[in-house]
Design brief:
Length: about 325
């Protein structure tokens, strides 16, 4: 089961068709959930993880959540079971619209194909699936009336209101087109080892706060207006700029969209707002035991109260007895 989810600002007068579970959008809310699911078969374990994600999201917010769920048949069933219709116990209001994942991918197929060359480990690899490249083109897939989006993986659990995460858009500089948290493992230190060998004083692949550690795309804040207007960003989607950067940094990724953002940030860090680690607290520690124990904590440390846990690489998320 492959899952991507987006939460975005969306006007109420767009005339969008919604599922029969929904009620009209309220005029006083500006949060919309965009969920992207690729469900070729329903895995009971992953389905339970999604239920926990949905429950934690809805329990902590009173916002209006409008879900655009990109699914196959199995994904539609999962979303329908997990997300309650209309008003939740917390006071949140939920609307849902479903899109076919394969038809959606066809709309941006040239972009997906150009990026797979550099950010996929091959046709049989997990991240070769088009669902992991759709977020880079949301500014083209969604109407111009959608101005800001939060893209989320769903192997996550909330410990705070999504509205507080959305408020980080107010901290963007004029040059920031999107915001991500650094990857909390030295994955890009590893991928960029050849460039780092030839440039020993580089910031590229070094740990925060001064290094360019690369990003984790479990949580992405996107300013779609700026993405639509950015000549640099849209040129990168055509492939030539990515090929130039990949050659410069000896970069061959395998993690889909987050490789794209990370590579672009190596030459253009001004495009990216750094989301606090507490809004994407990644729990995976795979690289600790695979050659990077001595520097692991420089990447993995995260101070502060966690607002959003990310159970990446199937890592269990700490229980919150009060909520879950």
């Amino acid at each position: 089961m492959n899952v991507k989810c987006c939460i975005c600002s969306y006007p109420t007068d767009g005339g969008e068709e919604v599922s029969d579970k929904s009620e009209p959008m309220r005029q006083d809310e500006d949060f919309v959930i965009h969920m992207y699911f690729a469900l070729t078969s329903v895995n009971p374990n992953r389905e339970q993880l999604f239920y926990r994600y949905a429950k934690s999201l809805l329990r902590h917010t009173k916002s209006h959540l409008y879900i655009h769920a990109v699914v196959d048949d199995g994904g539609r069933q999962t979303v329908s079971k997990a997300i309650p219709s209309k008003k939740t116990e917390s006071g949140a209001v939920v609307d849902i619209k479903f899109y076919d994942v394969f038809e959606t991918a066809k709309q941006v197929e040239p972009i997906i194909d150009s990026l797979r060359e550099h950010f996929s480990a091959g046709q049989r690899s997990y991240y070769h699936n088009p669902i992991f490249f759709l977020p880079v083109a949301l500014h083209r897939l969604l109407p111009d009336s959608v101005k800001r989006i939060i893209v989320l993986d769903t192997d996550m659990e909330f410990r705070a209101d999504i509205k507080s995460l959305y408020a980080l858009f107010d901290s963007f500089s004029s040059s920031n087109i999107m915001g991500l948290a650094y990857d909390q493992q030295p994955v890009y230190r590893h991928i960029l080892h050849m460039y780092r060998r030839d440039h020993p004083d580089t910031r590229v692949g070094a740990p925060p706060p001064d290094g360019l550690a690369g990003f984790n795309s479990g949580c992405v804040l996107m300013d779609l207006e700026k993405m639509r207007e950015s000549e640099l960003y849209n040129n990168a989607l055509q492939g030539d700029l990515v090929r130039t950067l990949a050659d410069k940094f000896h970069f061959q990724g395998h993690l889909g969209d987050q490789d794209f953002y990370s590579l672009l940030s190596m030459d253009h860090p001004e495009m990216f707002f750094i989301v606090p680690c507490t809004w994407n607290r990644q729990l995976c520690t795979w690289w600790h035991d695979h050659g990077y124990e001595s520097v692991f904590e420089e990447y993995h440390k995260c101070e502060g109260k966690v607002s959003l846990y990310h159970g990446n690489c199937n890592t269990p998320i700490p229980q919150d007895d009060e909520v879950l």
